[in-house]
Amino acid sequence: MNRAVCVEASFIVAMLTPERYTTLATTRWKTWIEDDFRILTPTLLGYEVSSALYRKVLKEQIEPKDGKVALEQFLSMDIESIHLPELHTEASKLAKQFNRPNVYAAHYLALARHLACPLWTADERLYNTVKEKFEWIKWVEE
Question: Looking at the 3D structure of the chain, how many domains does it have?
Answer without folding.
Answer: 1
